[in-house]
């Protein structure tokens, strides 16, 4: 059955792949992923907004997509902490999308290798716009089968000594002290910030990241998070 479907898919030009009943369509052709022998260092600051489920033998990727992203191009980026595995693929959201969580088509050619990456060392994020554009808004990715834990923000700080996360729309919210990722190989991302549960259901958050190195403050970086998680 799978082999027959693959042959049919190859015969249809510009085919948009979607799961049954899905309103989000994979448009990248071919599916872009790479398993490297040496890491490629990325310049991206925010690498992930993700919640991971327990270890599973099934590769499942979902995202919570805002209603106002309907009829938009979005980009799913996935990378391991060591930078050896990476994928980046474009999807189109249906014009009648009403918002919520949806399973994304993720036809990995190396699912066994991907599943072998520990859940705390994989990052995923959904960006509004093309994969080549700078991210202005990001939505959360749910990795693996549920139940999923809290949302984590994964950053590449180039080994900053300290990193803090604040929310300009919620000045009374205590700042988040981010923590180093628990691995020696932290090439793609090196810091994890836990999104406060009180903010996880908000439709939109203006997040501010600030890092310190050798006692000196770096520049503030701003991005809009679209968690919208139903509690």
The DSSP helix count reads 2
What would you call the shape? Answer: globular
Distance between the termini: 38 Å
What are the low-pLDDT stretches, counting only 5+ consecutive residues below 50? 1-20
Question: Which H/E pattern describes the elements?
Answer: HEEEEEEEHEEEEEEEEEEE
**How many strands, which pairing sense, and closed or not: the largest β-sheet?**
11 strands, mixed
Structural class, please? mainly beta
Give me the Rg, rounded: 18 Å
Note the quaternary state here: single chain
Mean pLDDT figure: 88
Number of beta strands: 18
Strand content: 35-45%
Helix proportion: under 10%
Number of domains: 1
Features:
mainly beta; 231 residues; disordered N terminus; 6% helix; 11-stranded mixed sheet; 7-stranded mixed sheet; signal; 2 helices; globular
């Amino acid at each position: 059955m799978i082999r027959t479907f693959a042959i049919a898919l190859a015969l249809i030009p510009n085919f948009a792949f979607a799961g049954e009943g899905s309103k989000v369509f994979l448009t990248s052709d071919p599916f872009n992923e790479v398993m490297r022998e040496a890491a490629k260092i990325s310049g991206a600051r925010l690498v992930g907004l993700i919640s991971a489920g327990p270890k599973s033998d099934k590769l499942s990727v979902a995202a919570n997509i805002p209603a106002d992203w309907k009829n938009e191009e979005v980009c799913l980026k996935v990378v391991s902490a060591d930078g050896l595995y990476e994928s980046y693929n474009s999807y189109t959201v249906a014009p009648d999308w009403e918002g919520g969580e949806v399973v994304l088509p993720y036809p990995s050619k190396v699912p066994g290798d991907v599943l072998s990456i520990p859940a705390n060392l994989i990052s995923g994020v959904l960006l509004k716009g093309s994969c080549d554009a700078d991210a202005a808004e990001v939505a959360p990715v749910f990795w693996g089968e549920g139940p999923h834990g809290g949302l984590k923000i994964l950053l590449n700080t180039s080994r900053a000594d300290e990193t803090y996360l604040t929310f300009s729309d919620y000045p009374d919210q205590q700042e988040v002290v981010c923590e180093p990722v628990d691995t020696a190989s932290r090439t793609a991302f090196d810091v994890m910030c836990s999104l406060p549960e009180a903010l996880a259901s908000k439709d939109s958050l203006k997040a501010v990241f600030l890092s310190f190195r050798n006692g000196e403050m770096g520049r503030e970086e701003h991005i809009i998070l679209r968690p919208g998680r139903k509690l």
